[in-house]
Amino acid sequence: MEVGQMQRQWVDYTKSLFLEGLLDGQFLQLQQLQDESNPDFVVEVVSLFFDDSEKLLNDITRALEQPSVDFKKIGAHVHQFKGSSSSVGAQRVKNGCIAFRNFCEEQNIDGCVRCLQQLKQEYYLVKNKLKTLFAMEQQIVAAGGSIPMLEISF
Amino acid sequence: MLKSTNANEAAAKITALVVDDSRINQSIHRKLLNNLGIENQVAGNGKEAVDVHCSGKQFDLILMDMDMPIMNGIEATRTLRAMGIRSTIAGVSSHSHRGEDVQEFVEAGLDDYQEKPLTSSKLVSILQKVNNN
């Protein structure tokens, strides 16, 4: 495949992530911060997000399995998850955290368990999509091309 | 885009401390500062921020997170002010402006409060307070 075609595919794919609401304007901000001085900035930040998220999801899962559920602790984890997902622009994960926190406040275990499942689904969905996006970027760079600038406004 | 603004010229001699326990936010905040040419370093919680100042360092700007282990941003801000630190301290957290915790944070001695995620435009508005100080 020639570089131009790969770049067009990359643009279409990125746009689809915004249109599906998986990503929001904050991700665009991160892309705009990236420059020649730090060409892997977005990949680095998103990798930190993956590490953080998986640890938080494990902690929340374990906390929900305890015989006496500590809703305050779970709420704190979910709040942290909301912060990190909004920092990278993972919009649907962030929205999942907002819903989850309401069930924590109500001390509703069933609601929390459902929200956790939903949150895991949203997280792994955006993770896979971002990995695909980064793989496309690597192919473009390997073929001697550069990553196009996106023109989307929010 | 921001590289030619007045804020950037004024920022050239500014130094900043990023206080945040999240490596994600540390990276983003440092990148935002670097892109404006602001020299910066990181503290992983409030206590580290206080310790850096105890060793004699000072900064024009401190970007202070609220929820952190060991010492949170409210306590750190209060401690720094009690030590006579007059740097511009901007609280940056994911709590809504209207929350009670944020009120306590502001009263601890903040010059500004911004809701996360921090963006270039929010940082530029914080920098205007640094220049006024």
From TrEMBL, chain A:
Record keywords, A-Z: Acetylation, Cytokinin signaling pathway, Cytoplasm, Nucleus, Phosphoprotein, Two-component regulatory system
Source species of the chain: Rubus argutus (Southern blackberry)
Domain notes: Histidine-containing phosphotransfer domain (HPt) contains an active histidine that mediates the phosphotransfer.
Name this protein carries in UniProt: Histidine-containing phosphotransfer protein
GO BP, sorted A to Z: cytokinin-activated signaling pathway; phosphorelay signal transduction system
Coarse class of the protein's main subcellular location: cytoplasm
Record-listed Phosphohistidine modification sites: 79
A Pfam family per the record: Hpt
Chain ranges of the HPt domain: 38-133
Gene Ontology CC entries for this record: cytosol; nucleus
Task performed by this protein: Functions as a two-component phosphorelay mediators between cytokinin sensor histidine kinases and response regulators (B-type ARRs). Plays an important role in propagating cytokinin signal transduction.
Gene Ontology MF terms: histidine phosphotransfer kinase activity; protein histidine kinase binding
Entry's localization field: Cytoplasm, Cytosol; Nucleus
Protein origin, superkingdom: Eukaryota
TrEMBL record, chain B:
4-aspartylphosphate PTM positions: 65
Entry-linked Gene3D superfamilies: 3.40.50.2300
Record keywords: Phosphoprotein
InterPro entries named in the record: CheY-like_superfamily (IPR011006), Sig_transdc_resp-reg_receiver (IPR001789), ST_Response_Regulator (IPR052048)
Keyword Phosphoprotein: yes
Residue span(s) of domain Response regulatory: 15-131
Gene Ontology biological process terms, A to Z: phosphorelay signal transduction system
UniProt xrefs under PANTHER family: TWO-COMPONENT RESPONSE REGULATOR, TWO-COMPONENT RESPONSE REGULATOR 24
Protein name as catalogued: Response regulatory domain-containing protein
Species per Swiss-Prot/TrEMBL record: Rubus argutus (Southern blackberry)
